[in-house]
Amino acid sequence: HEVGIWLAQHLFCTQMKDNLPCGKCNNCQRIEKKEHPDVLVIEPEGQTIKVDQIRRLQTEFSRSGYESRKKVFLIKEAEKMNSSAANSLLKFLEEPPGDFLAVLETDAVGRILPTIQSRCQVLHFQELSKEALIHRL
């Protein structure tokens, strides 16, 4: 399960249980299907994330949330932003509009502009071994 989707569900879930999103309520389902109006998921178009995709994000996030004050954007494979897209995102992060959560997912943090990294909280994840998963279950 993707961290960005889970975080969005955590923010918008209407039936949290033990401080975890239920995965079944209307909001959780729409987020999973990428249909929630206050959650925008950007993925590479072809080999890169293009500046027009980031501009669309900026346009969406300049407006108030449709169902909430909060908004979430998730950029998958963020290392694939071309230089124009990365610079456009940087400007957006420097002057953020309103209440939002930005999640940039990457397995190559070194390919993200240092100026973008400096405006983000970097969280490192690694896969659990099969033994660790079994132990946790």
Structural features, described:
Helix content is 37%, strand content 10%. It is α/β, with parallel strands linked by helices and 137 residues long. It folds into two domains: 1-36, no CATH class; 37-136, Rossmann fold (3-Layer(aba) Sandwich), CATH 3.40.50. It is globular and about 45 Å long.
CATH class type of the largest domain: Alpha Beta
- State the end-to-end distance: 16 Å
Named CATH architecture of the largest domain? 3-Layer(aba) Sandwich
Summed up, the helix count is 6
Return the CATH topology of the largest domain.
Answer: Rossmann fold
Which sequence of strands runs across the widest sheet? 1-2-3
**CATH superfamily placement of the largest domain:** P-loop containing nucleotide triphosphate hydrolases
| Series of H and E elements | HHEHEHEHH
User: How many strands?
Assistant: 3
| Assembly state (oligomeric) | single chain
Q: List segments where confidence is low: pLDDT < 50 over at least 5 consecutive residues.
A: none
Protein name: DNA polymerase III subunit delta
Pfam families: DNA_pol3_delta2
Organism: Enterococcus faecium
Can I get a quick summary?
The chain has 137 residues and is an alpha/beta fold. It is built from 6 helices and 3 strands.
Task: Present the secondary structure layout.
Blueprint: H1 3-12, H2 26-32, E1 39-42, H3 51-61, E2 71-75, H4 83-94, E3 100-104, H5 114-117, H6 130-136
Parallel strand pairs: 1-2, 2-3
Helix pairs in contact: 1-2, 3-4
